[in-house]
Design brief:
With 109 residues, this protein is of the alpha+beta class. It has helices at residues 10-22, 53-63, and strands spanning 2-8, 27-33, 40-48, 67-76, 84-93, 96-102. The strands form two sheets. It has a four-stranded antiparallel β-sheet, with helices on one face. It has a two-stranded antiparallel sheet with strand order 4-5. Helix 1 runs antiparallel to helix 2.
């Protein structure tokens, strides 16, 4: 058995959960925050049998779209003030960031 940890954009979460559940997967949704953008994203935990892993990855790939976002990162200004001002940078946020872990034990009590 594998555990898929998929970090996705909030905009894709509802559709992805629907599609995974329609295909018979069980899903847990976590409200998470990206360290770089400090913006909300969604993390899904999906426990799957080994032979169902590929299909789940296909569904995630089909639903999750990459998008460009403007991040406001602090950049130092030169001069005597030593203050920081927001500096806009464009980043492309995936699709999905996916970790696949081997499950040592799966128990329901
Ligand atoms: P964030 O950390 O908010 O990152 C959002 C996007 O900002 C990233 O998209 C990437 O395009 C950019 N970015 C992140 N760190 C950067 C840096 N140090 N310099 C320049 N640009 C940077 P994704 O790579 O698609 O990541 C989307 C979200 O997935 C991340 O949100 C984070 O929540 C998660 N993530 C990505 N890689 C991860 C990892 N290795 N471990 C844990 N979480 C990860």
């Amino acid at each position: 058995m594998k555990l898929i940890i998929a970090i996705i954009q909030d905009e894709d979460a509802s559709r992805l959960i629907n599609e995974l559940m329609t295909e018979g997967y069980r899903v847990t949704k976590l409200a998470t925050t990206g360290g770089f953008l400090r913006a909300g994203n969604t993390t899904l935990l999906v426990g799957v049998e080994d032979d169902k892993l590929e299909k789940a990855m296909e569904v995630i790939e089909k639903v999750c779209k990459s998008r460009k976002q403007i991040a406001s990162t602090p950049a130092p200004i030169s001069g005597t003030t030593g203050m920081y001002v927001p500096f806009p940078v464009e980043v492309t946020v995936g699709g999905a960031t996916i970790f696949v872990l081997d499950v040592e034990q799966f128990t329901k009590i």
